[in-house]
């Protein structure tokens, strides 16, 4: 017993060091297991408070930029709604009153916190389950794709972004429908990669990349980025493509949450296929 | 004349506030954030109790983690750095810094001060970024980013403490 006490006394700082590291690692593993969100439940309350206060100040600094982005988007939307078109045909077509059905409901949110310097980046959005946000909903920004909602609390939602090491996104070339998978190599938050375009893909610099219909999360045709470099892989059968992302994750504030009304129906069908 | 522990406590809180409110908001070259707070613990008097230092490191790190929402990576990296502090002290002084009394630019000299700051900071940043990525696949990115950030942090720390030393000399 005396020897044991002496051992503890002699190695007390080593033991304290180990104890603190064990506590730190258990917190780390709890908050960082890859399938859960990065936001710890213990500290979420304090962090949320801090982020909200900081965001109040932060938003003023980027007001001008955010306004420009939203204004540009408004201009684009105004140009494609019905008022932007005139009837050019002398013949009137019969119009079925309800031939269009809304598949996606879109509502706004604000990214109160965002990370883009880490390997696994997420954003926190100021809308939660009480506003109708559910895990799996798509998040898009004024310029293009942002990410997917992962965890939801009462008032907040956290979303994984394209610049997360585990994120995969089905994309295609806008003009010719060749499709591939977009992923991020963890280096520069402004660029992502597509490594599985087939060798015969008709691709050129400056091509626009949009989301594909194969994506069960995003509506098809949401802009993702622009091809800035590509290389025919000599050994494989694929073209390696570097994509400049439209969304600037270092200056992201206004986002839109996309609810897929037909999701339940598709899920039901998938369930039937499995059975 | 002066109440030494009170002054140290006030300086500590000021430094931490500066880190959280100012430096943590900086994004140099788009993605580099300087970390000043490890210097707060490194430059506490050499005679400070090691147990007290470890516990302070843990809670200081945890505070940073709460503000940056990073689990406990700051806490872990900082505890590791403080645990090795005696080793770093032996690098720059003969009696583990006890003969210096205080650790400042003027007592250590600029060369020793630089060694005593840069090596622990670099180690701290490597642990920090490694725990952040939590994988062995992109060690090159971790290393490079730690090096870039260390240089930035080092300049910030040296500038702050160089200025303090200069003001005191006048």
Essential attributes:
heterodimer, A: 275 residues, alpha+beta, six-stranded antiparallel β-barrel, six-stranded antiparallel beta barrel, 5 helices, 29% helix, globular, B: 170 residues, mainly alpha, 8 helices
General description of the model:
The complex is a heterodimer of chains A (about 280) and B (about 170). With about 280 residues, chain A is α+β, with helices and mostly antiparallel strands. Helix content of chain A is about 30%, strand content about 30%. In chain A, the strands form two sheets. A six-stranded antiparallel β-barrel of chain A has the order 1-2-5-4-3-12. A six-stranded antiparallel β-barrel of chain A has the order 6-7-8-11-10-9. Chain A is globular, with a radius of gyration of 24 Å. Chain A starts with a helix and ends with a helix. About 0% of the residues of chain A have low confidence. Chain B has about 170 residues and is mainly α. Chain B is built from eight helices and no strands. The longest helix of chain B is centred in the C-terminal third of the chain and has 31 residues. The radius of gyration of chain B is 16 Å and the shape is globular. The model of chain B has no long low-confidence stretch (mean pLDDT about 85). At the A-B interface, helix 2 and helix 3 of A face helix 3, helix 4 and helix 7 of B.
Strand content of chain A: 25-35%
Major sheet details of chain A: 6 strands, antiparallel, barrel
| First-to-last CA distance of chain A | 63 Å
How far is it from the N-terminal to the C-terminal residue of chain B, by CA?
20 Å
- Most extensive contact: A-B, 34 and 34 residues
Please state how the strands of the largest beta sheet of chain A are arranged side by side. 1-2-5-4-3-12
> Beta-strand percentage of chain B?
under 5%
Low-confidence segments of chain A, given as residue ranges, are 34-39
Overall, the morphology of chain A is globular
């Amino acid at each position: 017993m005396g020897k044991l006490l002496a051992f503890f006394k002699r190695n007390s700082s080593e033991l304290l060091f180990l104890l603190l590291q064990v506590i730190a690692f258990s917190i780390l593993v709890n908050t960082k297991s890859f399938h859960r969100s990065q936001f710890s439940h213990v500290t979420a309350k304090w962090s949320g408070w801090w982020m909200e206060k900081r965001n109040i100040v932060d938003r003023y600094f980027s007001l001008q930029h955010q306004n420009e982005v939203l204004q540009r988007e408004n201009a684009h939307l105004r140009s494609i709604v019905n008022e932007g078109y005139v009837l050019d045909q002398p013949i009137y077509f019969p119009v079925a009153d309800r031939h269009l059905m809304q598949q996606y409901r879109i509502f706004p949110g604000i990214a109160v916190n965002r990370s883009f310097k880490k390997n696994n980046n997420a954003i926190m959005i100021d809308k939660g389950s009480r506003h109708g946000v559910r895990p799996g909903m798509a998040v898009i920004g004024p310029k293009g794709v942002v990410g997917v909602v992962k965890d939801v609390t009462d008032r907040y939602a956290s979303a994984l972004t394209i610049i997360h090491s585990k994120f995969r996104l089905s994309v295609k070339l806008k003009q010719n429908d060749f499709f591939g998978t977009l992923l991020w190599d963890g280096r520069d938050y402004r660029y992502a990669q597509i490594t599985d375009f087939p060798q015969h893909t008709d691709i050129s610099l400056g091509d626009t990349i949009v989301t594909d219909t194969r994506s069960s999360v995003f509506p098809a045709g949401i802009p993702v980025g622009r091809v800035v470099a590509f290389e025919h892989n000599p050994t494989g059968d694929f073209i390696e493509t570097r994509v400049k992302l439209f969304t600037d994750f270092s200056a992201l504030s206004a986002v839109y949450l996309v609810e897929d009304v037909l999701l339940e129906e598709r899920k039901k069908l998938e369930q039937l296929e499995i059975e | 004349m002066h109440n030494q522990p009170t002054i140290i406590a006030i300086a500590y809180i000021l430094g931490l506030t500066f880190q959280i409110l100012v430096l943590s908001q900086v994004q140099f070259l788009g993605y580099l954030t300087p970390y000043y707070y490890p210097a707060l613990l490194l430059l506490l008097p050499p005679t400070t109790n090691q147990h007290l230092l470890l516990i302070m490191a843990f809670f200081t790190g945890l505070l940073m983690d709460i503000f940056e929402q990073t689990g406990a990576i700051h806490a872990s990296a900082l505890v590791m750095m403080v645990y090795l502090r005696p080793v770093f002290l032996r690098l720059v002084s003969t009696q583990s810094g006890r003969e210096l009394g205080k650790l400042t630019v003027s007592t250590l000299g600029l060369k020793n001060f630089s060694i005593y700051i840069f090596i622990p900071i670099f180690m701290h940043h490597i642990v920090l970024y490694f725990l952040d990525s939590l994988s062995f696949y992109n060690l090159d990115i971790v290393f490079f980013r730690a090096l870039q950030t260390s240089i930035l942090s080092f300049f910030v720390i040296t500038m702050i403490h160089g200025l303090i030393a200069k003001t005191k000399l006048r």
